[in-house]
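Incident review: delayed structure delivery

Summary: a single-chain prediction request sat in the queue longer than the usual turnaround. Root cause was a stuck worker, restarted by the on-call engineer. No data loss occurred. The affected request and its eventual output are reproduced below so the record is complete for anyone auditing the incident later.

Affected input:
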Amino acid sequence: MTELREHWLPTQDEFDRFARVSGDDNPIHVDPAFSARTAFGRTVSHGMLIYTKLWGMIRRAHPGAVQTRQQMMFPNPTYAGDEVVLKITGELPGHVTMVAFREADGAELFLGEAEVA
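Output delivered after worker restart:
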């Protein structure tokens, strides 16, 4: 059984850079003035940025890993400046469970599973 764990402090700069690379420039991710007027109150991370952080952990632990299936959901927003714990458990290669949660209050930010070859 593998368990990988890292801490991540998201920044607005990361949100902005991910928007440029991915083409997802939705103002909820990159426009603080717009986001302040939404229910979130501030910008939120792209869900796939969180997944990219988790996938990077897998690739560092198992170079050459290939994903054959994934499932994910984003139950709560991830904000710049709020420390996040990234956790992966399971078998590499094999089935892994991925979780990201806000360190301050334990709110789940990302829940997912993947098959890794």
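Verification: The chain has a mean pLDDT of 97.
Action items: add queue-age alerting; document worker restart procedure.
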